[in-house]
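Morning run. Coffee first, then this:
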Amino acid sequence: MGTEGVDISHGCFSGTEGEFDILRLIWARAAGYGVHDFRNQGGPMMPRLDFDRYSEDDMLGEWPDGAPDDPIIILLVHNEHFGRIKWEHAPFLASRLEELEHVLTAPGSTPRGVLLTQQFIRGLRTASSYRQDVIFS
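And here it is:
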């Protein structure tokens, strides 16, 4: 699991790659996408999505052909160190994370995942209110 830092503006997230990857897996499960586990093949765990459907521009947050119908995909496929979430997409993504928050508060869930989701929501709402993109670095 990566130890390199991931910083996402507006207070959305600051931590290691590994922590961010775990958070994305939590979101993928909560959203019903599930997880591919490639550890037995020397690979990572990752959201169960067809990543071939998404362009490099999509993974950097540009979405030239329009944002996905499910805004959580913006986060699940996003590059960890580069790109942005457009301020126009931020309120839809924040609302989707709020929906998932209810799933995350079910018995047996991790409190850290809930707190990090709430933090991400606050950051998205702040960025949107100032019409500023959320920047990954």
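Residues 5-135 form one domain. Good start to the day.
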